[in-house]
């Protein structure tokens, strides 16, 4: 029953209960002079009625009265006395009555007879104590509110940070897409400007082939014409690949089972693999993997490209292993972390596809360049160095990560990390 | 057999010249050349070719503008038009199809491939 109302001396309302008229008059006189608002009751029953009608800050209660005792009053209306400070006043203090009163939530005790000074002091002390308690509670409440506000602000800051992160990702994707669009325009322009002279060269060769005296078998003229024609076709292929490279700007995203994408990719290179009789392909795929939100055709392009690279890296045969599994990313690095370009958070589960070969491997000095456009180790006849660069572009657009591990003479592993699709959504 | 009349409209002078030389060498075609759209439309009305090979990017009138005019003109609307261009993008292919171009051939083809494409169109149209 300790107070939860704020005490201000001049506003303190007091109910003084005593069966003796002189004592009630004394309370009235002394406490009214002090500035308190005083109401009196002559018995327990009247006190209960008053308490039911009005909320008091302080109750001066005679313990022994005819009819309802002071203790009975406390027990009769405990709810109404919430926040009311109770001072028991009695001429007959006993250990039992004191214990009982304290159990009922009494704040202090005054023994009759008491001097006016004693009464003033004890009422003031109880009122001030109540005020301190209330101030303390108020501060606690304010602190709770401030803490809640700080928490809310922290939450808001986190939300803002997340939103900012998403915005940054979108911005990066847009910049990447814009770069590709610009490159597309350039490629388209170059294609037009370069293809016309190439077409003229080809048609010129065709004309010469018809007009020059035909000689059976190989001869320098025919060989020269063939070399020119093959070179023109190579130049044309470069233009087409540059154009394809720049076209990877938009994705048709759907939830896909990555194992099914792997199977389609393997089917696409089946014929090529059949020709390479010394190359064995094995799959180590995990069944029941969560779906990924990907552009199936583009991801197939990445897998096919990695598979064809693996075939080319094993001129004397070898083994290709294609794996799929999911993995909790516990450490930063390889696309995971809090850096601007990290697409995965530490603690996130990613879906991983590995394409490993037992081929010639990549030298340490070349490892950092393999994803650069136009970097190739295959020589001019076999590749123009856009395959892995296109793959990287595709994986970047998927907000995934692609990297390679390799040891010269032992083989290469291309590792592709993809985002797991969120549950639900329209593309189920 | 009558020689089939081909009109090539392309601003690349040497390209036109070599298409003409190569196709006429077969003895199956007679090739007319126009190096801009305006001249091409006028020649189409006059010669009434069996096929028009039309470039897209040209100074002045573009291939699409030429195509639109040809397909709106009663004298030329029935003539088969094949785009023969260095542009390979889907947008151009769609635009050409919308304007009723019958074929889309990307440049840097050997003359054999071009001839095969021309013969396919002529067969489809019942001209040969």
Order of helices and strands of chain B: EHEHEHEHEH
Q: Poorly predicted ranges of chain B (pLDDT <50, ≥5 residues)?
A: none
Please report which band the strand proportion of chain A falls in: under 5%, 5-15%, 15-25%, 25-35%, 35-45% or over 45%: 15-25%
List the strand order in the largest sheet of chain A. 2-1-3-4-5
Number of helices of chain B: 5
Which assembly state applies to the chains in this document?
A: heterodimer
Structural class by helix and strand composition of chain B = alpha/beta
Radius of gyration of chain B over alpha carbons?
13 Å
Describe the structure.
- The complex is a heterodimer of chains A (428) and B (128).
- By secondary structure, chain A is an alpha/beta fold.
- Chain A is built from eleven helices and twelve strands.
- Chain A has helices at 21-34, 44-53, 70-76, 95-103, 116-211, 220-247, 258-268, 270-275, 296-312, 364-367, 387-397; strands at residues 13-17, 37-41, 58-62, 85-90, 108-111, 254-256, 279-285, 292-294, 318-328, 349-357, 401-407, 411-419.
- In chain A, the strands form three sheets. Chain A has a five-stranded parallel beta sheet with strand order 2-1-3-4-5, with helices on both faces.
- In chain A, α3 links the parallel β3 and β4.
- With 128 residues, chain B is α/β, with parallel strands linked by helices.
- Chain B has one domain: 3-Layer(aba) Sandwich (Rossmann fold), CATH 3.40.50.
- Chain B is built from five helices and five strands; from the N terminus they run βαβαβαβαβα.
- Chain B has helices spanning 13-25, 37-47, 63-72, 90-98, 111-124; strands at 4-9, 29-34, 51-54, 80-85, 103-106.
- Chain B has a five-stranded parallel beta sheet with strand order 2-1-3-4-5, sandwiched between helices.
- In chain B, α2 (37-47) runs parallel beside α3.
- Chain B starts with a strand and ends with a helix.
- At the A-B interface, α5 and α6 of A face α1 of B.
